[in-house]
Amino acid sequence: MPVGKGKSTLQSARQQGLGNLGIVGEGNQTLPSPRQRAICGVIVERLPDDHPYYALIGRVAAESAHLEHILDLTIWDILRDPHTMASCITGKLIGVGTRLEVIKSLADYQGISKDLITKYNKLGGEVSELNRKRNRYIHDAWFHFTDGVELSEVGQFKNYARETQKAGFDPISEKEIRDFLRKLRKSTETAVSLRTDLQAERHS
Fold it and tell me: Do the Cβ atoms of 53 and 154 come closer than 8 Å?
């Protein structure tokens, strides 16, 4: 099938509103209605088990966990408790945002400089949107939107959001996920650096 024709088919599907449909599962496939498929000439189905996107999604989860662990280590440092005991607390914290709030509160209580706390505030602002995307990458269902022959577009089904006023199939490129991972790794490196600065202040 010529590439141009394939692109036209996928664009036609969007124009028919398939990208904003509620999707109905049929066995291992998730398809639009027969009428919609007949009109658009496309199918929407879950990714195969060996699809390379799953490795990227796994990296998103692993990198996020590493950032949370660095923040846990920082909390343990401030508490001056054995890590096993301190982990009884941090193990109950959910997400990056909560951990950063705990760090800032403890740092303020112990007289850590306002400059360093401001840097943690900045990190919190940077990771807020990253954390939202992390949650969507991991928790929203993944599909590919295809003409059934050659062309395939990978994405997720998004629930309705007031901010976008949209719901349905949202294409996500491999580049987008890799860019996200680079930003997340940079935030993790920032958290490591801030932990080092905090340790230096406490021992000065």
Answer: yes
> Global pTM?
0.75
Asked if residues 77 and 195 have their Cβ atoms less than 8 Å apart, the reply is yes
- Residue 176: which H helix or E strand, with range? helix 174-202
What residues contact 167, with CB distance under 8 A and at least 6 apart? Answer: 20, 22, 158, 159, 160, 161
Tens-digit pLDDT profile for residues 43-95: 567 888 899 999 999 999 999 999 999 999 999 999 887 778 888 888 989 99
Q: What residue type is 196 in one-letter code? A: T
Q: In sequence order, which residues have a C-beta less than 8 Å from that of residue 198 and are 6 or more positions away?
A: 74, 77, 78, 107, 112, 116
* CA 189 from centroid of its chain's CA atoms: 18
Q: How far is CA 81 from CA 75, 94, 113, in A?
A: 9, 20, 21
Number of H helices, E strands in the chain: 7, 6
Q: State the CB neighbour count (10 A cutoff) for residue 96.
A: 23
Evaluated on CA atoms 44, 48, 52, 54, the torsion sign reads positive
DSSP strand pairing (142-146 vs 43-46)? antiparallel
Asked whether the beta carbons of 168 and 157 are under 8 A apart, the reply is yes
